Amino acid sequence: MRLRMPSLWILHALLSHWWRHPVQLSTLVLGLLAATALWSGVQALNQQARLSYDQAAARFDSLNQAQIVSAGDQPIQESEYIRLRRLGWAVTPLVEGVLSLEILFKLEDLPEKDVKIQIVGIDPMTLQSLNRSDQGSTGLPDNLSLNDFLTPPWQVWMSPATAEGLRPLLAKAKADGFPFNPQGEKVSIHTSTALAHNELITDLYLAQHWLGMEGLLSRLLLLDADNPSALPEALASTLRLVRPQSDHDISRLTASFHLNLSALSLLAFLVGLLMVYSAIHLALTQRLTLRRIVFSCGVSQRELMAWLLLELLLLSGLIALPGLVAGYWIATLLLPDLSASLAGLYGAQVSSELQLSWQWWQQGVFMAWGGTLIAAIVPLIKLIKQDGVHLGQSMPSLNDQRRLKGLSILGLVSLLMAVLTAGLGQSLLSGFLLLALVFLSAALLMPVILDRLLSLCQRSAKSMITQWLWADARLQVPNLSVALVALLLALSTSIGVGGMVEGFRNTFTGWLDQRLAAEVYVRTDSEGQAQQVTQWLAGTPNVTAVLPSARAATQLEGVPIELRGFQVHSTYVDHWPLLSEAPQVWQAIESESAVMINEQLARQLALNLGDSIALQGMQQREFTILAIFSDYGNPKGQVMMSLDTLYHNWPDAERGSFALRVEPSQIDGLISALKETFGFTGTQVLDQQAVKRYSLQLFERTFAATQALNLLVLAIAAIALFSSLLTLSNMRLTQVAPIWACGVSRRHLVLIELLRLLALALITALLAIPLGLIISYCLVNVINIRAFGWALPWQMFPHQWFYLTLAALVSAGLAALIPILKLHFCSPGELLKGFRDDQ
Amino acid sequence: MLQVTHLAKSHQTPQGPLQLFSDVHFNLHAGESVALMGESGCGKSTLLHMVAGLEQADKGRILIADQDICQMNDRQRSQLRRDQLGIIFQQLNLIPSLTIYDNLVFQARLANRVDDAWLAYLVASLGLETLLTRYPAQLSGGQQQRVAIGRALAARAPLLLADEPTGSLDEVNAEQVITLMLALVKETGTSLLMVTHSSLLAARLDRSLTLSQGQLK
Amino acid sequence: MINKVGILLMLLWALVGCEPAPSTHGFAGLGSDATGFAQVEPDAEIGYPEALNQHPDFRIEWWYVTANLESESGETLGIQWTLFRQANSPSPQREGWANQQLWLGHVGLTRANQHFSADRYARGGVGQAGVAMDPFTAWIDHWAIQADDQAREFTLTAHTPEFSYDLVLAKVGPPVLQGNQGVSVKSPQGQASYYLSLPFLQVSGSIQIGDETLSVTGEAWLDREWSSQPLAEDQEGWDWFSLHLDQGDKLMLFRLRHRQSQDYFSGTYISADGTAHPLQPNQIRMQPLRQHSVAGRRLPVEWQLSVDDFGIDLRTQALNPNAWMATGIAYWEGPIRFEGSHSGKGYLEMTGY
After folding, report:
1. What domains sit in chain C, N to C, each tagged with a CATH number?
2. What ipTM, to 2 d.p.?
3. Which of C297, C41, C89, C82 is nearest to C192 (CA)?
4. pLDDT (tens digit, 9 = 90+) per residue, C105-138?
5. CATH fold group of domain B2-209
6. What angle do helix axes A250-286 and A688-741 make, rounded to 10 degrees?
7. pTM confidence score
8. Which residues of A fall below an 8 Å CB-CB distance to B?
């Protein structure tokens, strides 16, 4: 075989090493695969979420829009819209409504009763023209053809998933319902991933038809006015101008959530890189002979270096691609949970269909390359520094001692930096830096601690064999330390994250019990309905208390907050989860218009009991804080006050929510009666159990991604340990042979070998516990406060430690299985080989 | 073929620099075979490595095919090794992950001088026919050294440098290997510089030089 | 005045989000098939003021005003006001939001060192834009032109964040039928439109630019044109002139640029008393002179115009060479002045560059 470029034979020689050492190759592949997959998987999730936020922000009905709504209960008249246009107002009309499938299709006995479709009718002419001035996108599908959109039979746009869901119904549709236009023609249906689930976008004409809103409009978006002027007097009585809500920046709210995920994926990446490092390190060490031969055959140092780099880039590039595919797959698995928890926590809509840009693939490959280079740099430098001719007659014991000393110095420096970071810095990022430094210190100090511990064991050992056992374990530490560090990191993360999640779950369920003291919760559509409900409830015998509440939005020191009015009642007095309170707080709230605030707000603005806050009420500008309550899961600051105080100061507060105290046996009856009488949907009337269920479900989904990643990290660490042991097993024969020659049976040797590995794993697990506790402390008392605004009690869960230690032992045992079997079944001849000098 | 003049070299040791030799001269004519002898640690291997461009001289000139290797940079020295030199070490001469055949043609491939007929002849002469698809670990020490000789000669380098090529072999094997090597060297007209501590072996070459107390005799 | 059609269609194409196929339907689809729409008949009678009304059976039409103005301090300005209508399907007309008419408004204002433009979009059927008679009114949002009962005087208004104007246009001469009794041929293949102009309009009123208010007077020119398929397939752009000669005569000239064949020329010489003299293609010479770069394109902002049979040989110059209409579909339109055999002022529009 002749190659155009003779130097390619160098690459051939380099690569041949991997084929001859499949274990090393698979360590490299698995490490890099795992690193790339986990990292890029999480990045895909984050990217998808960000894309969804951007789409939401760019949408024509984004909450960031100034708009005009009806002042009363009635929709806006078309004539009012035209009047505004003729006055020069840059508004575009929307017709919106939610219909159940039954009503939309005019079909009876549909199996999916609860599916609701949001219909949005737009006028693309005014929407497009206004939008063009600010260069943004409307959130309309890119490929929407205006002419077709406005021409019979007209069009309907929906997400692919919605289309999939509606497909079976389309076949049996009747001509007076969806998807037929008023002329009885079937409209053409188009899909776009830019749209939310169960949402139909169509021309205003069709939306009015299907919603029965001919001549009426839901609201008018004000598109060009940064500073809208007042409405003309003639319209001011029927219309209301709503200014943009600047607080609804979803990406800001969710930033901490994504940072959390990113940090965990970075950890996974690092654990994967540790595997890559150990594979590359070993491969380069074992290729010292190759290096000398290649050198003597006329390859310069620099050329060899270039080929080595090329080899690594080639390999890692090739591995990165399946890694990315795996990452995509992981993201697909986690996305439903992620979108559910983001929707629940922040109201952020994340499309459940993954769309990835080419940048994502590019980033993934670069990440793999970067990671490989980082993992390779130390081994490469070592290789270059090594004498070109003499095969290094290194003195391991001396080198190891020096190495351990270096590691302990670095570890202590990193520990010092961690302490400094803990003291300084208030940002979430510095919180993660702290975590990273804790991990780094642990990783650096781990081999030192292990060495000390083993030498301690060695000294205290009584018999020759046990002494040898410890001494030999000590000898193995340098070779196994990378894998053991990976295991340590994975275990301690599990302990830390597991402790945090479990602690949160405990706190959260307890808090839910307190907070959801009432049995039934009702949310009405309008003021009028609220009054009807109140009257109806007054006549219902089983309801022991009706506790209305109302809400309003305002700002405090520039921070958007929510105001809530409630009626002081024993339900709250006995149960409300207060973190701290002044004496007589409930009386003060009822009579002196004192307020209580949630923990988030207190932390964000550094507020304490007795402080006054300035709110722009109609009657009153100063409110005294007399209690702080915990409010998990709420991204916003909240101020609670008595209903009277709220109504006096914010007369336009949104009313119509009720908490009802009911005899437990009467709950179901009351709920169905409410639904029947007022046509409430399942989300408007909720019983306590349903709310709890929903909240806990949300909770689980929020941490589903975290726990899944955590498990994967643990799995990678186990694989790292396994591959290290497998690689070492060949060398072990050399080291075991003298003992065998001294008359220790092979069975005995196998037992010792297993014991030693289990001991190493046990020590690692035991070291992981305090580290895990430190990490969980950082999570609950640093990261959580900075990311979400609430603190959690630092709880310990020894049963978790027990299981994780067990898991570490089992994985070490499994990892040791093959090498030990190899030892068990090897022939005396092979053991004798251990005495031979070569290889 | 090879001219060495005014060559000086010292080693850094914890006790300060140690002068190995300060003014070494010798010549090697085309087709000539020369043994380089001396006690352990006298620097004969270092001298060989310097000729190979693997180690740097402190002073002096080493001319191979009229080019001064001491004036070259790493890349040029490597190119010279690839084209002009074949090097055989005492042991671990082979790339463990390549087959015997790939090891054999490695340098010839790099130098872009693969000659299939010549290779076949070498393989036959060295008795490697049945071993070509094996890996180095599966060969005995003597077999490995034969492959190393084959690799060094396969590229038809005009100068062969051997550093105790039989040093790690038993007598019978050593004899076989050295006989094969010398026969092939004579046959191809290759110049040979061989470091050895065996005067018996040295006597089989055209002449021998002894390095002692920094002087070459 | 074919120009406006193209702009509307180009704009719609842009909204539609796909580029018009370059060679199959003429520029911006203007040559596309007009099946189902009313056609231009050679012997139709065009009356005034009925010509001001809309003709929804035809695919496209426009109401178009340009004015050359002068402020009290002697500053020269120009304004443009245009309303386009396009039907995206033929009659019958559908009611309400289902209506097939699309409306587009363009306004521009040009001074020597400034140029502004703006556009507005609407659909028919709901009253946001439209045309009504008795008296004549054409509007899109708050931009409108409105006549008195006899259609002798018009008020013209437009308001944008940057500028606005309120002008009164007094008709001081008769309406003029362009082409052959109002049928203006656009290509050798016979594509045509109905075309009536009011070139004799005296203007007075006020213009607001930022905080500045200017009282202005001057001359305006109103065009009415409607058709269903006015362009040949390979016509890619045009250069159109409306000129007020100082001695009172008017001149309209246009050139349609063909991709594959010879350019098509047309025009009308209008005597001060309103008598129209249609010009044959071979009577007209239009020579681009100086090229100018604006918005990344190069356009001729100076021209040599000759109609030998009427002793016309003019050299025109733009008031502001940067009179670029940065609307949905961009084009050049602005006031010009000219010297040579005659002097005077007018408007130039250039599209498809």
Report:
1. 3-351 (2.40.370.10)
2. 0.90
3. C41
4. 999 999 999 999 999 999 999 999 999 999 999 9
5. Rossmann fold (3.40.50)
6. 10
7. 0.62
8. 2-3, 6-7, 9-10, 12-13, 16-17, 19-21, 286, 289-290, 292-303, 388-389, 391, 838-839
